[in-house]
Amino acid sequence: MSRPASNGSTAPDPGSSELNPLFARPGEAYDLPKFRFPAGEALPETAYQVVHDEAMLDGNARLNLATFVSTWMDEHADRLYLEAADKNMIDKDEYPRTAEIETRCWTMLADLWHAPDPRHTIGTSTIGSSEACMLGGLALKRRWQKARRAAGRPTDRPNLIMSSAVQVCWEKFCNYFDVEPRYVPISEDHKVLDGHGLEDYVDENTIGVVAIMGVTYTGMYEPVAKIAQALDAIEQRTGLNIPIHVDGASGGMIAPFIQPELEWDFRVDRVASISTSGHKYGLVYPGIGWVVWREQAALPEELIFEVSYLGGQMPTLALNFSRPGAQVLLQYYMFLRLGFDGYRRVQANSRDVARYLADQVAAMGPFDLWNDGSDIPVFAWRLRADHADKWNLYDLSDRLRMKGWLVPAYPMPDDLTDVTVQRIVVRNGLSHDLADAFLEDMRAEVAYLDRLDGPLPHESDRPTAFHH
Q1: What is this structure's pTM?
Q2: What is the DSSP string of 63-127?
């Protein structure tokens, strides 16, 4: 529908998509409603053009330095993706080879993460690492409940210990599954959860501790072995045996390749389960995640359902039911395509670019690094106090966005909310040449801001918390 404009012409309805006459065909409507079903059909070429033109207004994924999610795969992966777009992962009777490949993938991860017996443990693919974390958390809760019931103790007050810098999926887990979250605040002296003061949070209702390999805010590793040592000391004093779930959304696919000496995985006895995100440093398009347990006994049997579906009897372990199978095939393709050495070279290159960028940002003068990208290829910085009279990091973020770069600025979590940082995530595809192009733009914008005669006006709706 169109409406008369004030000058007598016809203006498009803001609730519809107006078609450029170039793309319209004889007899077709010239605008399509946005918030209700069109009355009739459109030609596929027309519908394609409408959707294409809308999506064209999104940002350039290659210039998005905020996201952890993979934005590029090679042409062979693209071809495989199209070939497998119709596969439903839950339909293991119809797609048994895809189901077999899923098992191969999590078994390969179990081996990569030093599970005691990779061929006889258990794992699964998920839509992403958030679902994987929730399955890991559910297993911790059910194991705790089972042990409490066996001891004749109440099971109504479970709690989970994690850093205040935890990713929002853990807040969701505690909210959705009635678990009390206990946040250990980070500080200038303890920038991550490192075991310090852990005894103040642990009690008989603690189902586990979450250790993050690559904190979302800054990219820093939480020292899993050191956390385990703190829990060992607590067990010696109290008898409480507290397991660890490692949220390896990013670091689970970084540390094995470029920090192989770091003990964070199943080499640490307290680690009961590990999750990762295949669509981050697993180098696959979204969405695919993985979770693996140390051994089958670490996953309560009641979390596995036997279902009869589409002609077959099959076990299912997931929060989702039907979900794409294509990303599982893409993950296996990447494992075969790169192998251990290929992943090592890709991740090392990303870390090299991150370290290079961090050094160059630190050399600009106005900034202090929070970390330098030596864990996962992610680093953050803050504005020096003696340089904040005319502009702040939100202003710099806005200026960079004008050049197409998305570099977020946000406050740190509780107890550090007065600290604002900016963060860069280096992914496969951010080359040294592209990094130099970014640095050229950033230096130009910093120089522009420094030349201001007075402070910039600021809106009152700046973010008060980190937007995950």
Answers
A1: 0.90
A2: GB-S--S-----HHHHHHHHHTTT-BTT-TTT-HHHHHHHHHHHHHHHHHTT-SSGGGSEEEEES
